[in-house]
């Protein structure tokens, strides 16, 4: 039988699920023990006590009125008017054994008219004898266990006590898992937080594996950065000399070659930007609206048809400002390269930050959007490559920046302009 219908009602956090796993057996055990105890105490024990008292009541009824037997058995006997007899058997709703007492007494006496337990300290029996009503009164403790609720209170108290102790112990066991999750999440966002493996053997093994993985990735990033720094220095120098040499020539044939050198420098910058990644520096509180507004103004000064159409939300977000700037500039450059204009919007909510860039270009077909964000991919059928020169790293860099901030890049169709709609979505 499938239990998928139960999934929406289950807690999502590990602490809540652990508490649920802990409480269900304890509550179930308490209920079972309480029911068994109630059956034994309020049924079997009460039956035995009523049986003993019934014999004494029968003796009192068989003796004439005023007999010393009544005093010896501590059962008060007296005649009362019929009006004092209750209309029906009664007992308090919270009297757990009241129904058992009445049922058993009626089983022993066929002529028993009424039983009253409302006083909760005495049992009052009413019989029709010798043309009148006879009332017998005796102590309630003779037919019911004394303070039966104490056992239930003890069960509840120790059940709660053991639940609290177990919760504290389980919380201590789950804390290393939470710390590991926080360290992994921070590393995924490009932040390095101190972490030391602790906890149970399995959790400690997972923590040590995470530390080894993090150290290996950090070494690879460091080695890649050092290598690219050397490559950047080695390539920039000859390109700069070649550009200067061509700039000094007045020959018309030198102009195309000079443009080729500038294109090579721009391509080199793209390679280095992609290889450096988006994990440089630590995130700092940044006002996204102010940052995007400045980026749009810079693009407008560069004679690009870019407009900020929406800026909504207040507050700051932990961002690497330079990386976000690089990503948004890449989207704007792509938009004005493959279209005639671009519109930018930034919206902040309590849970997320969304930066959107739309253009009126040819867009990207839905079946090609996954390939578009892959490095070194150029979609000639979808985008007019004659309008610009590139190697297919623009969207890859944007995706890398978004993921480094714990977000993602979404590509779609612009409902406003009809071209590409690119969203950078980052959780706050």
From TrEMBL:
SUPFAM superfamilies registered for this protein in UniProt: ATPase domain of HSP90 chaperone/DNA topoisomerase II/histidine kinase (SSF55874), Homodimeric domain of signal transducing histidine kinase (SSF47384)
SMART domains documented for this protein: HAMP, HATPase_c, HisKA
Cited Pfam families: HAMP, HATPase_c, HisKA
Keyword field: ATP-binding, Cell inner membrane, Cell membrane, Kinase, Membrane, Nucleotide-binding, Phosphoprotein, Transferase, Transmembrane, Transmembrane helix, Two-component regulatory system
Gene3D superfamilies recorded: 1.10.287.130, Histidine kinase-like ATPase, C-terminal domain
Domain of life: Bacteria
Membrane disposition: Multi-pass membrane protein
Presence of keyword Transmembrane helix: yes
E.C. number: 2.7.13.3
GO terms, molecular function: ATP binding; phosphorelay sensor kinase activity
Cellular localization per UniProt: Cell inner membrane
Domain Histidine kinase per the UniProt entry, residue ranges: 230-428
Record InterPro entries: 2C_sensor_his_kinase, HAMP_dom, HATPase_C_sf, HATPase_dom, His_kinase_dom, HisK_dim/P_dom, HisK_dim/P_sf, Sig_transdc_His_kin-like_C
Catalytic function, reaction form: ATP + protein L-histidine = ADP + protein N-phospho-L-histidine
Coiled coil: none
Residue ranges of the TM segments: 151-170
Gene Ontology cellular-component annotations: plasma membrane
Residue ranges of every copy of the HAMP domain listed in the record: 171-222
The protein's name: histidine kinase
């Amino acid at each position: 039988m499938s239990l998928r219908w139960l999934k929406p009602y289950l807690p999502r956090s590990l602490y809540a699920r652990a508490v649920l796993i802990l409480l269900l057996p304890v509550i179930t055990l308490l209920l079972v023990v309480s029911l068994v105890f109630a059956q034994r105490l309020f049924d079997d024990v009460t039956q035995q006590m009523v049986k003993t008292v019934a014999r004494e009541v029968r003796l009192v009824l068989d003796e004439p009125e005023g007999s010393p037997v009544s005093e010896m058995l501590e059962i008060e006997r007296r005649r009362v008017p019929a009006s004092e007899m209750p209309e029906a058997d009664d007992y308090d709703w919270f009297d757990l054994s009241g129904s058992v007492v009445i049922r058993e007494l009626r089983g022993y006496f066929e002529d028993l008219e009424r039983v009253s337990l409302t006083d909760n300290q005495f049992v009052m029996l009413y019989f029709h004898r010798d043309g009148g009503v006879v009332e017998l009164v005796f102590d309630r403790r003779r037919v019911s266990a004394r303070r039966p609720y104490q056992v239930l209170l003890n069960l509840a108290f120790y059940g709660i006590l053991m639940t609290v102790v177990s919760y504290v112990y389980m919380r201590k066991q789950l804390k290393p898992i939470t710390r590991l999750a926080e360290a992994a999440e921070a590393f995924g966002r490009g932040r390095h937080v101190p972490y030391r493996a602790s906890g149970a053997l399995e959790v400690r093994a997972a923590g040590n594996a995470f530390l080894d993985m993090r150290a290996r990735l950090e070494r690879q990033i460091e080695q890649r950065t050092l290598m690219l720094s050397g490559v950047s220095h080695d390539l920039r120098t000859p390109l700069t000399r070649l550009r200067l040499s061509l700039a000094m020539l007045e020959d018309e044939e030198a102009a195309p070659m000079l443009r080729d050198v500038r294109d090579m420098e721009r391509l080199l910058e793209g390679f280095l930007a992609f290889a450096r990644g988006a994990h440089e520096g630590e995130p700092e509180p940044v006002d996204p609206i102010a940052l995007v507004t400045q980026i749009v103004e810079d693009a407008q000064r560069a004679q690009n048809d870019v407009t900020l159409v929406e800026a909504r939300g207040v507050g700051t977000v932990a961002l690497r400002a330079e990386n976000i700037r690089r990503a948004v500039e890449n989207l704007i450059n792509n938009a004005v390269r493959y279209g005639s204009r671009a519109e930018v919007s930034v919206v902040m909510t309590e849970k997320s930050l969304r930066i959107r860039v739309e253009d009126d270009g040819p867009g990207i077909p839905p079946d090609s959007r996954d390939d578009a964000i892959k490095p070194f991919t150029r979609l000639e059928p979808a985008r007019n490559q004659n309008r610009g020169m590139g190697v297919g790293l623009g969207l890859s860099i944007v995706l890398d920046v978004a993921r480094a901030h714990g977000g993602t890049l979404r590509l779609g169709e612009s409902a406003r302009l009809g071209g590409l709609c690119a969203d950078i979505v980052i959780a706050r």
